[in-house]
Amino acid sequence: MERQTITVKEVANYLGVHTDTIYIMVKQKQLPHLKVQNRILFTKESIDLWIQDQEYTNLHS
Questions:
Q1: What is d(CA 24, CA 20) in angstroms, rounded to the nearest whole number?
Q2: What pTM was estimated for this model as a whole?
Q3: 14, 17, 6: which is closest to 40 by C-alpha?
Q4: Tens of pLDDT along 11-52?
Q5: Which residues contact 41 (CB under 8 A, 6 or more apart)?
Q6: Distance in angstroms (rounded) separating the CA atoms of residues 56 and 6
Q7: What is the band of 61 on the pLDDT scale with cuts at 50, 70, 90?
Q8: Phi/psi of residue 14, each to 5°?
Q9: Residue 3 class from Cβ within 10 Å (0-12 exposed, 13-18 middle, 19+ buried)?
Q10: Which residues are 3's β-sheet partners?
Q11: Given pLDDT bands bounded at 50, 70 and 90, which one contains residue 3?
């Protein structure tokens, strides 16, 4: 079975930012995420949709 979630480190690499940036964005509820006990996880699909939304918002502001 293929894993459906990605980690903070993987999202940071995917977005090209530091892991600290991801933790800050999660704390400020700027990134779609889920928590499983003490772990913060993401789906690639939700991150891709978030990226598209950011591009649209920045294009139309």
A1: 6
A2: 0.89
A3: 6
A4: 999 999 999 999 999 999 999 999 999 999 999 999 999 999
A5: 5, 6, 7, 33, 34, 35
A6: 24
A7: confident
A8: -60, -40
A9: exposed
A10: none
A11: confident
